[in-house]
UniProtKB/TrEMBL annotation:
Catalytic activity: Hydrolyzes free adenine bases from 7,8-dihydro-8-oxoguanine:adenine mismatched double-stranded DNA, leaving an apurinic site
Identification of the protein by name: Adenine DNA glycosylase
Family membership noted in the UniProt record: Belongs to the Nth/MutY family.
PANTHER family associated with the record: ADENINE DNA GLYCOSYLASE
Keyword Metal-binding: yes
Length: 370
């Protein structure tokens, strides 16, 4: 252990104060007290880069459709993606599906209880493995996510980059030391300590306005002693946003619209979408639309009007998506393309990107595409 950490006696005192606070200040999460490994695994994967409020309805819907590891493993990937639609970061859903198949094939459909084996599953990193081991099996496994990273950085008054290699090493060691100390307390446990630390970071030791007078562990906070609580953690340099313009084309033939399944390495691989591509804003736009659709599908189109425009963000990109109507003028769909001609009433059967779903709703509502 790092010699700069508080002693075991101090850690135990900190945890006792935290435990007393948590008895009356725990967040009212719907999964409070949940110990089912499958449900915890789904929840923690969904919570990666997604807020609790956003996850709750998706988790409930996902569990209704896939109540067991076996049902998830047996599902079609397209069905899994459809249930995930709207949460973003679709690689998480594909990894969930793959991991469920591994669990059924190699582990009898059961989640392992140890961190090392859990981390061998697709999409399960150190945090997720620790959360499953801790919350489902009460193992002394550390957890380091956004809230606890901020809390631990302030407790230790760590002034380096907490997301860099050195910072991660220090913070994981400290988190591990704390959770092992929790395992020695009769009134607490690793699971209870991890949940309390996360709740404290989420509600008191917040990013912009830490409520230090209300903090039950202020006595042990290095940042507060040095008046650095508003400066730590050090903020990473903001990445410059790149602005791009793309086109989506609703190609119609006999009342049906062309959807294509996106393929690796395209963004949102595995989802279905309307023909979509970068748009050169230099006139004539119609020529760019004709060329883009032909390159993706083999069809020649007659371009109609622009029917919608959406702005959305993907990592460091600000994307303006301009949506156009079109009809087929000539040609056949490229044989190798996985595609479908779909009536608006059937769009719900296909997992679409968020913007693809918005365009599909416009078409379903009967907005004139031609």
């Amino acid at each position: 252990m790092d010699g700069h950490f508080p002693s075991l006696r101090q850690q135990r005192s900190l945890l006792r104060a935290l435990y007393r606070w948590h008895l009356t200040h725990a967040r009212p999460l719907p999964w409070r007290g949940e110990t089912d490994p499958y449900r915890i695994w789904l929840r923690e994967i969904m919570l990666q880069q997604t807020t609790v409020a956003a996850v709750i309805p998706y988790l409930e819907r996902f569990l209704r459709r896939f109540p067991t590891v076996q049902s998830l493993a047996a599902a079609e990937e397209s069905d899994v993606l459809r249930q995930w639609e709207g949460l973003g970061y679709y690689r998480r859903a594909r990894n969930l599906h793959r991991a469920a198949q591994v669990l059924v094939r190699a582990h009898g459909g059961q989640l392992p209880s140890d961190v090392a084996t859990l981390r061998q599953l697709p999409g399960v990193g150190r945090y997720t493995a620790g959360a499953i081991a801790s919350f489902a099996f009460n193992a002394p496994a550390p957890i380091l996510e956004a809230n606890t990273l901020r809390l631990h950085t302030r407790l230790l008054a760590y002034e380096g980059d907490p997301r860099g290699a050195a910072g991660q090493r220090v913070l994981w060691q400290w988190a591990e030391s704390l959770v092992h100390a929790a395992a020695t307390l009769p009134e607490s446990s690793p699971a209870a300590a991890n949940q309390a630390l996360m709740d404290l970071g989420a509600t008191v030791c917040t990013a912009t306005a830490p409520d230090c007078p209300a903090c039950p562990v202020q006595r042990w906070c290095g940042a507060l002693r040095r008046n650095l609580q508003h400066e730590l953690p050090r903020s990473p340099a903001r990445r410059k946003m790149t602005h791009v313009v793309e086109a989506a084309v609703a190609v119609q033939r006999s009342g049906r619209f062309l959807l294509r399944r996106r393929r690796p390495p395209e963004r949102w691989a595995g989802l279905w979408d309307f023909p979509r591509f970068p748009l050169d804003e230099v006139p004539p736009v119609a020529a760019a639309l004709i060329a883009g659709v032909q390159a993706q599908s083999g069809l020649v189109i007659d371009v109609g009007p622009q029917i919608a425009e959406f702005v959305h963000f993907v990592t460091r990109y600000r994307i303006t998506l301009r949506c156009y109507a079109a009809t087929v003028a000539a040609g056949r769909v490229t044989p190798a393309l996985e595609h479908a001609w779909v009536r608006p009433a059937d769009f719900a059967r296909y997992p679409l990107s968020t913007t693809g779903r918005k365009l599909a709703r416009l078409l379903l509502e009967g907005r004139d595409p031609g």
